[in-house]
Specification:
- This protein has about 240 residues and is an alpha/beta fold.
- The protein is about 35% helix and about 10% strand.
- The protein has helices at about 50-55, 70-80, 90-95, 105-115, 135, 140-160, 195-205, 225-235, and strands at about 60-65, 85, 120-130, 165-170, 210-215.
- The chain has a 5-stranded parallel β-sheet.
- Strand 1 (about 60-65), helix 2 (about 70-80) and strand 2 (about 85) form a beta-alpha-beta unit.
- Helix 6 (about 140-160) packs parallel to helix 7 (about 195-205).
Length: about 240
């Protein structure tokens, strides 16, 4: 896992940036796998997706629903990438703006464009301290924990069997040298909140790959990298 632990850009980064990730799941933790047949040895790759496939990887990008009418944008996205992530459209504030009332209009636009163009889709993200709607920000303790569980179930039920991989938990570790968890309203519900999120997601869609997503974990010697690695190792055991 150490040699595969690589960086995902922070959310709201510029569009069409590559998204690479560290992936971890409770019970079924899986490394990133190739999504296309490898290009024959020695053949020149003409796109980023083809180049990635030569070494058994995929190359993905974040797509904004609001840019799907831009032909230059969609042409580049369609040509270069073979995995698509919704930039903001599947985050908590977008999919559940009011408690118990889900809205998948924008998320479905990104999903449908991706599928129509032969891409697989990575869902981002189900549990995060940022971009929570106001109603969720006002909760704490067991109420917030239940809201997290209900949100995961609601979103994953809508996309069950359709999403290749989900970023179940996003950016839960602190920057700096502690190697510990970030202080957040979700963390204050109890240290098991990440495990609960993954177990909930696994039950909601057993076929989806379940991933943990973070940034600044590309250097093996960093405390944050080690913190994430130790969590994944614990989950696998």
């Amino acid at each position: 896992m150490g040699t595969n632990a690589i960086l995902t850009p922070r959310s709201r980064r510029p569009l069409l940036n590559p998204r690479v990730l560290i992936a971890g799941a409770v019970g079924v933790l899986a490394a990133v796998t190739a999504l296309t047949a490898p290009t024959p040895a020695g053949a020149a790759a003409s796109t980023l997706g083809e180049a990635a496939a030569q070494s058994g990887r995929y190359f993905g990008t974040a797509i904004s629903a609001g840019r799907l009418g831009d032909s230059q944008y969609t042409t580049i996205a369609n040509r270069e990438f073979n995995m698509v992530t919704a930039e903001n459209e599947m985050k908590i504030d977008a999919t559940e703006p009011n408690r118990g009332q889900f809205n998948f209009t924008s998320g479905d636009r990104v999903y449908n464009w991706a599928v129509q163009n032969g891409k697989r889709v990575r869902g981002h993200t189900l549990a995060w301290h940022a971009q929570q709607p106001g109603w969720m920000q006002s909760l704490s303790g067991s109420s917030l924990r239940q809201a997290m569980i209900d949100h995961i179930n609601g979103v994953m039920a809508h996309y069950r069997g359709k999403i290749y991989a989900w970023d179940v938990v996003n950016e839960a570790f602190a920057d700096g040298n502690s190697g510990g968890r970030r202080d957040s309203n979700l963390q204050r519900t109890g240290n098991d909140w990440i495990e609960v999120a993954f177990r909930t997601a696994k039950a909601a869609d057993p076929a989806a790959k379940l991933c943990y997503n973070d940034y600044n974990i590309d250097n093996w010697t960093w405390a944050k990298t080690q913190g994430v690695y130790n969590m994944v190792r614990d989950f696998k055991s």
